[in-house]
Every structure is written in structure tokens, then in C-alpha cells.
Amino acid sequence: MSAVTLRACVLIACSLLGTAPAPAGAGQAYPLWLARGSRLLVQARVQGQAVEALLDSAAEATLVDRSFARRLKLLGETTVSAEGSGRSSFDAQLVPGVRLQVFGVALSNQTVAIADLADVGQRLLGRRLDVILGREIFDAARLRIDIEARTVTVLPASAQPHGVRLELVAEHAVETLPVLIEGTGPVRATFDLGNGSDVLVGSQLAQRLHLLTDGRSVLARRGGGLGGETERPVIRLRSLQLAGRRFRDVPAAVDARDSASDLNIGVSILRHFVITTDFAQRALWLQPRR
Q: How many CB atoms lie within 10 A of CB 165?
């Protein structure tokens, strides 16, 4: 999916207002399932209505499909320009005062964005997509995410996570973590559970490292999330190192958008770890799977 950037700073402020200080579901494991092998889906509620949602840690706010929003009588008050990982920007309407619930955590007074998700749902899932659940839940709770075991557990703040602790740094309102590419770095990589495709390399980093001009094979592949399908050059990184684990011969698509981060790490890499997130504490722990 890649990051969804909404061009309105009020959006992030409103999202944080509804953060739950003490998650009621702490300690309980909730199901996570994979669509097409790499898209993370969870059960959530919007305005009390149960809905299947795509989990996206790099979306600044939850997005609701227009047809589903009409059924919930959600009416947008402000229109903003939004950017996904597709070829162009798109319009979204902001709706404040929305109730979200997921993993036993209730989030009140959230600002969500209403957009047309029909195209991206068909391309990513092969069917309709009503909700993309954004970073609100990551801001509100410490989460243990085990993609291979297909579970998400809400942890108490006092829990001691396992694995390598990495500092989170916000860039363009999404969270990034340090990664080494072919011995170079560290560079900051977007932590993107909504990215069910290849690692993404920003074109500026690709240019600095001569990744498209050093003789390695360059293919073309269609991809992209919100904003429409696009074609990208695809290369193979000789090595990528994250939390002490080295991955070799890693497929990576070059993202030419001006707003692209240097790197974007998604499910293809993150599924090899048990992940603990704590956005409020600016930290993430990665425990390599055996």
C-alpha cells in the first residue's frame, strides 16, 4: 500500500486527541489474516459497525470508502489533497468525531478521511475495500504483531518487549526505522505494514547509490496503491540489513515520487520478525523469527 499522506496538519492533531490511555484489551491476542499472501486484514468497528479493515501503519489517518461512509452517514466537512503510492494525488474529505474500535481499544473523536477505495481494493485484494486502518491504533497502544502466527496482541505499557530496539523517527508524518543497504547507511526506512509488495527505494537514494546505472538488471513492474496504478523500475538489492538480520538478493521497486522516503519496508521483510510497536514511546522492537 505504502504511505498515505494527507495534506492537512489538523488531521494528525485530531487523531491524537482520541488516544486511549489504558487499552482494555491488553494481553489478549486478536486475529490477523492475510489476503493474497501479504495484505494484512483485521476486524474493526467504525461508528459501531463491524468492518474488515486493511492495516496500514504508514497511513496518517484511517480512510473510509465513500459508499461505506454513506451507509454510516459520515459527511465530509473539509476537502484535502491526499497522496498514496500511486501515480497521482486524490481528494479526500475529512470527518471529525468518528468512533473507531480495534483489538479491544476504543478510540473516540477521531478524524477520518473519506475517499474512493474501489480501485485500490480491486487491485490489492481483488474485491471491495471499505476501510484502511491507519496509525491511530499504533499511536494508542503497544502492539505485538506476529504476521506468520496471524495474531496481534495489545501489550501493557509495562511489558518488556523481546528483540532489537529501534528508534522511530517521524518523516513526513510517518514513522521510519534504520536500515542498511549493501553496507551503506543507516538510511531511514518507512515502517509500512500496508506495503504488501516489494521494498521501495526512493529515486533520490537510487541515484546516490547508482542502483539503476551500475550494471545490475533493471525490469519494469506495475504497482502502486491509492492514487492509481503506476509502472516502476525493479532491481535487486544485493543485501539489506534490519535489526541485525541480513537479507540478500532483495527485490526492490524504485519510487519516483518527490515525496518518497529513501526506503519503504513492508510485509515482505517484516514478516520475518515478531514486531512490537510503541509509537508513543518512539520505539519499535524486532525479534527475528527462528
A: 14
Please give the CATH architecture assigned to the domain spanning 164-288.
Beta Barrel (2.40)
- What is the spatial distance between Cα 244 and Cα 218, in angstroms, rounded to a whole number? 28
Amino acid at 46: V
The Cβ of residue 99 has, within 10 Å, a number of other Cβ atoms equal to: 16
Arithmetic mean of pLDDT, 2-21: 44
pTM: 0.88
Contact (CB, 8 A) for 195 and 1: yes
Give me the half-sphere count of Cα atoms (radius 13 Å) on the Cβ side of residue 179. 27
Per-residue pLDDT reduced to its tens digit, 162-212: 999 999 999 988 999 999 999 988 999 999 999 999 999 999 999 999 999
Q: In CATH terms, are 5-155 and 164-288 the same topology? A: yes
Sequence ranges of the domains in the chain: 5-155, 164-288
The residue among 118, 35, 26 whose CA lies nearest residue 69 is: 118
Return the CATH class of domain 5-155.
mainly beta
Give 47-88 pLDDT, tens digit per residue.
999 999 999 999 999 999 999 999 999 987 788 777 665 455
The amino acid that residue 49 corresponds to is: Q
Cis amide bond preceding 186, omega within 30: yes
19: Cα within 13 Å, side-chain hemisphere:
18
23 three-state secondary structure: coil
> In whole angstroms, what is the distance from residue 257 CA to residue 192 CA?
16
Tell me if residue 167 falls in helix, strand or coil.
strand
Q: What is the pLDDT of residue 83?
A: 65
Q: Is 138 left (phi over 0), alpha (psi -120 to 50) or beta?
A: alpha
Q: Which cell is 21 given?
A: 490511555
